[in-house]
Design brief:
The protein has 152 residues and is an alpha/beta fold. It has a single domain, classed as 3-Layer(aba) Sandwich (Glutaredoxin). It contains 6 helices and 5 strands. A 5-stranded mixed sheet has the order 1-3-2-4-5, with helices on both faces. Strand 4 and strand 5 form a beta hairpin.
């Protein structure tokens, strides 16, 4: 009986993780601002730069679920170059090289080290605007208003 329950638990856990992964793969996040600038110039799209603490920041996790994983955001995503800069506490989340790179980007664009933070950049990497934090009320209206002004 214990084996059956264990197998059932593993099966449900696997299904849950695979569904999460499918949602995440709908978006094409890159992790390098210089690469984003090249793509932005070629495709004439603004750059959305997202700072997150993926493994420790509760508002970041809520914003990811409510905003970035929403169908409404996914419909807009192709009109922007998406850049994800993660600042995890666990060392197994990203490589040491990526973490060091992310620290340089944080020093340039997020000196206050506030998470979550979303910036809109032009095709030269110049900051146009920013929005910080996320409401515990889980209202994404301000975030949609923020990106919509650059997607006209």
């Amino acid at each position: 009986m214990k084996k059956f329950v264990f197998i059932l638990l593993v099966a449900f856990t696997t299904i849950g993780f695979s569904q999460q992964d499918e949602r995440d793969t709908n978006l094409s996040w890159i992790t390098n601002v210089e690469e984003a600038v090249k793509i932005s110039t070629e495709e004439e799209k603004p750059i959305l730069l997202y700072f997150t603490g993926s493994d420790w920041c509760a508002p970041c996790k809520m914003l990811k679920e409510d905003f970035f994983e929403s169908e409404a955001f996914q419909q807009r995503a192709n009109d922007m170059v998406l850049v994800l800069i993660d600042y995890p506490r666990r060392m197994d989340v990203i490589s040491t090289e990526q973490l060091n790179y992310n620290k340089t980007i944080i020093a340039k664009y997020n000196k206050e080290r506030t998470f979550p933070k979303v910036l809109m950049l032009d095709s030269k990497g110049k900051e146009l605007d920013r929005i910080s934090g996320y409401s515990p009320l889980r209202d994404t209206k301000n975030h949609f208003d923020f990106i919509d002004q650059y997607l006209k």
